[in-house]
Design a protein that fits this description.
By secondary structure, the protein is an alpha/beta fold. It contains seven helices and five strands.
Length: about 130
């Protein structure tokens, strides 16, 4: 099985929150970890929203970048954009959510999709993903 992490999961992995245990357990159960080429940018922007102190933001950013280095990256190429466009036409999705789902949809099945974004969950389920969330 392939494990897909969205930006909320990558950041949660390094915070002292209940979601951290969920992400850690998912990572421990699967050897193949993937994400979209969009995730690093989105995760780093999220760091600035969840941590106020500059030193702690820097530490969290370093941890996110270390995690990024361990992930297989699905490119945001024309194929991904086309699939995201189709998803957005059929579902009420934000662009970033559609890109994550389109990237995960390219992976060999079965896919475990780790997210804490409620907008992605119903669409991920409709695509046949095993959703890991809180």
């Amino acid at each position: 099985m392939t494990l897909y992490l969205d930006a909320s999961a990558v950041v949660a992995l390094h915070l002292d929150v209940p979601a951290r245990a969920i992400v850690s357990a998912a990572l421990a159960s699967e050897p193949d970890w993937c994400t979209s080429g969009l995730t690093l940018m989105e995760a780093l922007a999220l760091v600035d929203r969840v941590v106020e102190e500059a030193v702690l933001r820097g530490d969290l950013e370093d941890l996110v970048r270390l995690t990024w280095d361990r992930l297989a990256i699905v490119p945001v190429d024309q194929r991904c954009i086309d699939r995201a466009t189709a998803l957005m036409r059929d579902q009420p999705l934000r662009l970033s959510d559609a890109l994550h789902l389109a990237a995960a949809d390219r992976l060999p099945r079965p896919v475990r999709f780790v997210t804490f974004d409620p907008g992605q969950i119903p669409v991920a389920l409709s695509l046949g993903f095993d959703v890991v969330s809180s």
